[in-house]
Each structure stands twice: as C-alpha cells, then as structure tokens.
C-alpha cells in the first residue's frame, strides 16, 4: 500500500506531512498526518519512535496537527507524531452524515460488527494492525516503539486500544477522554449502532470496564490523564471518576489532573500536550 504524499510543511526542523493510501482495513482511501522530527530526516538516521494521537468527534487527521502546537516538543524529543483520521470517508453508508456524534468523524476506534457499518467502519484494525506496518515500510519510524494518546472520543480510543492490545503501546495518556462510554449518551449511541443492542458486547470497548477486569496492572509506570473542570461534557459524557475508581480497584497508577478554568477544546490540549509527549518519550526511550 503506497503512501501518496499530499502535502509537506517544514516545521521546527522537521516536516509535517499528510498522506493518503488505499486502506485494506477500511476498504477506502484513508488520510493520515505524520510529523517527522529533524532526527528522522538526518542522513543515515535511525528510525524514531512515534506517538499516535487519536482525535475527537468532528475532527480529522489535520486537527491535532494544526491546533495542538505539539511539533516543537516532538522535535525536541525526537518523536514522530501520527494523526489518523477519525472515521472512514466516502463509504456512503446511509445516514453516516446525519449526526456529528455518530458515523462520519465519529468512528469510535472500534471494528463495527453491525450492518451496514461493519464493512468499512473498522478503525481498530486500521490503527492497530494496518497503519504501523504501512508507515514503517515507507518512513523512518520505529514501530516497535509506539505510544498512544488521544482526546475525548480519541481518549476513549487510546485507553481502550492500549488495554485491548497489551504490549503494543509502551505508554498511554489521554486528554478529556470518554472514560465510561457504556454509561453516557455518546457511547450508548455509538455502541448501539456499531456493536448492537447487546450491552455485553460493549464492555470490551469500555475503558473503565476493561480496566476493572485486568488481572494484573497493565501500565505499572502509570497512565496520565488531564481534564478541564469547565469542560461542558465532563459530567454528562466523560466521567473520569469511573476510570479513576477502576484503576484504584486493580492498583493501576493513574495521574489524573483536574484543571480549573479549562474547557474541552484545543486551548486546553495546547496547555498540556508537552507533558504528554515528555511522559510518552520517557516510556519510549526506556530500554531503547
Ligand atoms: N460539535 C460539538 C462539539 C464537538 C467537539 O467539541 N469536538 C471536539 C472533540 S469531542 C473537538 O476537538 N473539536 C474540534 C475542535 O475543537 O477544533 C458541539 O457542538 O458541542
């Protein structure tokens, strides 16, 4: 699967690139953003570790790259940043553009099991099984060293994919993640549509339920979550206290920082992304 370069922008000595490729997992062309730090572009350079950032509802592969201001720190740390899209595009599933919180830009980072979504809405396969290999074939990325971070729906994606694929990601951190999707309207709507009405199928995609079921501590070095206290979705959709309780119950160290005066948007993300990348870099560079 050849990557087609759509754009490349010099940024802090590295390059912010956008690619398109024919995704076998999705069955459609998919776009992805990749920031290559200067360390990856030097002649004879060794491949660099990468942090996958999963974005939230209504976002695309461009949103984090444009709005988070993460490239300066990634350049400093020698980290690549990979920003997948948030759903298939152009699949033509009836109703996929009817709502902003389901369908287009709302793939919820899982493989749908229900018709008509199951054919193309396969974001888990795309991110975990397809993208690392496709990117590593053509770019200087060391995909044995991957970290996972995400925001809101992408925070749900980061926490669940990290827990569903032990050993795949060296670190997981999240900003304002949907922590208990089975118990909130965004998650109930997405899981009903993608996974069907049987709630027993939902727990395998619910970060708090997954954490509560762990037999051993999955991330002994801890998990970092930041949450704004003026986030209008906090009580109704995000519910970090449910994940906090699940971590406490199994002894998973969790650094959950609550920030007065901060909302759900990218000004909040800008404020804390440096700490997330430094956290990720520590995990990715230990044992390297
Ligand atoms: N459209 C929603 C908001 C959607 C939203 O806040 N999306 C978040 C992720 S859940 C986001 O990052 N949006 C893109 C942005 O802020 O640039 C509303 O009207 O309340």
Report what the structure shows.
This protein is α/β, with parallel strands linked by helices. It has a single domain (about 5-285), classed as Alpha/Beta hydrolase fold, catalytic domain (Rossmann fold, 3-Layer(aba) Sandwich). It is built from ten helices and nine strands. It has helices at about 40, 65, 70-75, 125-140, 155-165, 185-195, 205-210, 235-240, 240-250, 265-285, and strands at about 5-10, 15-25, 30-35, 50-55, 80-85, 140-150, 170-175, 225-230, 255-260. It has a nine-stranded mixed β-sheet, with helices on both faces. Strand 2 and strand 3 form a beta hairpin. The longest helix has 20 residues, at about 265-285. The chain is globular. The mean pLDDT is about 95. The chain binds glutathione. Glutathione binds near residues 58, 59, 100, 152 and 266.
């Amino acid at each position: 699967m050849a990557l087609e370069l759509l754009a490349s922008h010099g940024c802090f000595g590295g390059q912010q690139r956008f690619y398109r490729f024919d995704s076998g997992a999705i069955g459609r062309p998919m776009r992805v953003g990749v920031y290559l730090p200067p360390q990856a572009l030097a002649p004879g350079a060794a491949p660099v570790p990468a942090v996958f950032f999963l974005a939230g509802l209504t976002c695309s592969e461009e949103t984090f790259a444009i709005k988070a201001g993460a490239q300066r720190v990634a350049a400093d740390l020698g980290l690549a940043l990979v920003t997948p899209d948030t759903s298939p595009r152009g699949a033509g599933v009836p109703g996929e553009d009817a709502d902003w919180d389901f369908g287009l830009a709302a793939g919820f980072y899982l493989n749908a099991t229900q018709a008509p979504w199951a054919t193309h809405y396969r974001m888990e396969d795309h991110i975990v099984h397809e993208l690392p290999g496709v990117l590593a074939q053509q770019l200087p990325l060391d995909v044995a060293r991957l970290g996972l971070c995400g925001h809101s729906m992408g925070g749900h994606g980061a926490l669940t994919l990290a827990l569903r694929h032990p050993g795949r990601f060296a670190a997981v951190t999240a900003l304002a993640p949907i922590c208990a999707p089975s118990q909130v309207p965004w998650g109930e709507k997405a899981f009903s549509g993608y996974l069907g009405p049987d709630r027993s199928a939902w727990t395998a995609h619910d970060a708090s339920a997954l954490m509560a079921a762990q037999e051993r501590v999955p991330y002994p070095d801890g998990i970092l979550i930041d949450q704004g206290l003026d986030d209008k979705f906090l009580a109704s959709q995000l519910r970090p206290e449910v994940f906090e309780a699940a971590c406490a119950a199994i002894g998973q160290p969790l650094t959950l920082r609550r920030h007065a005066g901060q909302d759900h948007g990218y000004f909040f993300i800008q404020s804390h992304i440096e700490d997330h990348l430094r956290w990720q870099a520590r995990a990715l560079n230990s044992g390297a």
